[in-house]
Write a structure and sequence with these properties.
Layout (H helix, E strand, L loop, with lengths): L12 E2 L6 H10 L3 E3 L1 H7 L6 H7 L3 E3 L4 H4 L4 H16 L7 H8 L1 H6 L17 E4 L12 H8 L5 E6 L2 E5 L2 E2 L4 H19 L2
Length: 201
């Protein structure tokens, strides 16, 4: 892709599990961002993402769940935890990747890697009001040492108290709003049943 001039800021690369130092340099040189989903890579046996080398390369980075079929859940807190753990484990150094760096990859880094950095990813006047509020008082998150550590190592989806998407509240006091959850679950069950019928399994 680099040889054919197909890389650039508008081309997001995904996974790059077996990329070399030269590959990362080409990505950085062209300005192509990289998105990784370490949890699904591990689950399906793609190998160990070279998180430390990715961080050192200077390539714009973002984290993702990949897809619900492989991940089983949309838990970005879990994705952040495994990212930090991979960096530490592979470097044999507990603080190989800072909590702040991991948090940035999950927020503004992900937005920038999608070309949406001017719209979302940070709390900045003029950008979309996409906000989550995480409770710091449950036993899973308290007591809070640093917010970065709490979010990247301790928090769980159940700790999310409020979700606002483009200024509209979608979760409040820990409960979803504006969604008919029983109907949604019924539709999901029927979809799976229909797929099973079609596949004859």
């Amino acid at each position: 892709m680099a040889r054919e001039g197909l890389l650039g800021p508008d081309v997001q690369l995904v996974h790059a599990t077996h990329a070399t130092a030269d590959d990362f340099h080409l990505m950085w040189e062209a300005g192509s961002p990289l998105s990784i989903s370490p949890w699904t890579k591990l689950k399906v046996g793609y190998g160990l993402p070279l998180v430390g080398k990715m961080a050192a390369s200077g390539v714009e980075m973002g984290l993702s769940v990949d897809n619900m079929v492989l991940a089983g859940h949309a838990d970005m807190f879990g994705v952040m935890r495994v990212t930090a753990a991979l960096a530490a484990g592979m470097a044999e150094a507990q603080f190989a990747l800072s909590d702040r760096r991991v948090l940035e990859w999950a927020t503004i880094g992900g937005a920038r890697s999608l070309g949406l950095g001017d719209l979302v990813g940070s709390l900045t006047p003029g950008r979309r009001a996409d906000v989550i509020a995480v409770r710091a008082d449950p036993v899973t998150t308290a007591p809070v040492g640093t917010v970065d550590f709490m979010l990247t190592h301790a928090a769980q989806p159940a700790n999310v108290d409020l979700v606002m998407i483009d200024g509209t509240i979608r979760k409040e006091a820990g409960s979803l709003t504006g969604i008919d959850l029983p109907a949604l679950l019924a539709e999901a069950r029927e979809t799976i049943a229909d797929l099973r019928r079609q596949a004859d399994v």
